[in-house]
Design goal:
CATH superfamily: YVTN repeat-like/Quinoprotein amine dehydrogenase
Number of helices: 1
Strand order of the largest sheet: 1-2-3-4
Order of helices and strands: HEEEEEEEEEEEEEEEEEEEEEEEEE
CATH topology: Methylamine Dehydrogenase, Chain H
Number of domains: 1
Shape: globular
Structural class: mainly beta
Number of strands: 25
CATH class: Mainly Beta
Length: 340
């Protein structure tokens, strides 16, 4: 994420929250909104929010398929398959969508769910890029997350609302949940599917019983400038959060207590934060590049990967935890071997 872009976007969105119910939030501001599953839209020199061609455009999403057999990137309006070992493009675009503002794989890797300028959640075959079933209309989503069993898809919205749908029937499950007082930027299910974590610009992370949708414990508080990212450790015992001031916090999921002192990363915000599948590391995208940290205590593991003049916008671990993919401001995607 371009640091100045995010600041401009935050300023603009303050006066536009009321429009979120009918408009793609990623297309409202001059910048990028990115969270665990990173949302994005870029404001071009001529006033275009999202470029039709992804050539040279900022990488806004980078996701490994759960089986590790593919890597998918989004830049501009274009989603592409990439070689998971090298980051090189594979074939034609997977699909195109105006201003994608959320993207996530289903747990079995068969579906990609996305949200765009039409304020609908679309489902795509992750191999062919063809639409699968009807979209879910009128969803002002900033982020999407599948439940671990793949039966439910959940969205976080600009007015602090969370909604859930049955993936098979596309029917909404229950009433909307008033989860926060501000924009929800990120969602994460615990690995066992029992908890849902929501991160919002009201500086809090909240935990919910995923079945009853009732609060689970007290909110996680202490961030000072909007929480943009939330992720669980693979065993579900630890929660990682990142905010708009570039501070990462590591929490005990059971007690809500901090496990370490807050960690200031080399970035103006910590919107792209991922935990490795083996639980050894977490990675952040920053102004120098991608940084690797000990998941246990938050100490740096090594110097920045993929150092670029304008920094790295997004990071993703391979499912086997052996590599880290990075995406940059000019469309570059690279894959790095991690320490054994």
């Amino acid at each position: 994420m371009a640091d100045n872009d995010f600041s401009r976007w935050k300023w603009l969105i303050g006066g536009l929250v009321g429009l979120l119910v009918v408009t793609c939030v990623g297309c409202l501001g001059a910048g990028v909104v990115r969270s665990g599953s990173e949302a994005a839209s870029e404001y071009g020199d001529e006033g275009d929010f999202c470029a039709d061609d992804d050539e040279g455009e900022e990488v806004s999403y980078l996701l490994f398929r759960p089986d590790g057999g593919a890597l998918v990137s989004v830049a501009g309006n274009t989603a592409r398959r990439r070689d998971p070992a090298t980051g090189e493009r594979r074939g034609d675009p997977l699909f195109t969508q105006d201003c994608p503002s959320a993207l996530t794989f289903s747990p079995d890797g068969r579906l990609l769910a996305s949200h765009g300028e039409d304020s609908a959640v679309h489902f795509w075959d992750s191999t062919t890029g063809k639409p699968v079933g009807p979209p879910i209309p009128d969803v002002p989503a900033l982020d999407l997350a599948f439940s671990p069993d793949g039966k439910t898809i959940t969205d976080g919205e600009g007015d602090g609302i969370v909604r859930q749908w049955d993936v098979r029937t596309r029917e909404q499950l229950g009433a909307p949940l008033a989860a926060h007082d501000d924009l929800i930027f990120d969602l994460a299910y615990s690995p066992d599917g029992r908890l849902l974590a929501t991160a919002a610009f009201d500086d809090t992370v909240r935990l919910w019983d995923a079945r009853t949708r009732k609060p689970h414990g007290a909110p996680l508080t202490g961030h000072q400038d909007g929480v943009l990212a939330v992720a669980f450790s693979p065993d579900g015992a630890t929660i990682y959060t990142g905010d708009n001031a570039g501070v990462v916090r590591i929490w005990n999921a059971a007690t809500g207590a901090l496990r370490t002192a807050p960690i200031k990363i080399d970035a103006d915000n910590a919107a792209s934060l991922r935990v490795s599948p083996d639980g050894r590391y977490f990675a952040t995208a920053g102004t120098r590049g991608a940084d690797l940290w000990s998941a246990e205590d938050g100490t740096p593991v090594r110097g920045a990967l993929d150092e670029q003049a304008e920094g790295v916008t997004v990071v993703a671990f391979s499912p086997d935890g052996t590599t880290l993919a990075t995406g940059g401001h000019h469309g570059d995607v690279k894959v790095w071997k991690l320490p054994a």
